[in-house]
Amino acid sequence: REANVKFHKRIHRVIDTREKQNLVMHWPRNPFYKIIYDAAIAGPNKEGGVTTYTSDSLSLGKMYTEDEVRERGGSEFVTQVQNPLNPDDEYDLIDTVMQIPFEARDIKKYRIMEDWVFDYNYSDFRGRIIAIAPLFNLTSSGVDLGEQPLFWVKMEDLRPILVNQEVF
Questions:
Q1: Is residue 76 scored above 80 in pLDDT?
Q2: CB 26 within 8 A of CB 127
Q3: CA atoms of 149 and 156, how far apart (whole Å)
């Protein structure tokens, strides 16, 4: 009950799946990154799909489409190649942009948004997951710009999918 709540706090926590205690999230038969990424690219209108949000505000107006989710996370690499119109001059170079597509197996961390509530009536402290965001390293022209959320997914949308998955 809302009247029993004496303390409430929303926190963000990062889970690194490379840590020993979290290795079960990369179980080879059904890794967590595959479950969450497949649900995101399926989209909200298909069975087994979820709505993906652009930020942790989880606003209805700020959502990604399935194509935008596929495009996010990829990077561009600018390199110079020899001009095909002038093959004799080895110093005649042109800039070429190479697209590096995003692969779901590159997801190593997740940001979890949780609400922690102290229930005065039962004298217990309970945590409830609100949303999950896979993190990826944003790079531009080979420069690492840090970790960014790929997308945000509400836990209430993800829960029916996770219930039907085989996990370690």
A1: no
A2: no
A3: 19
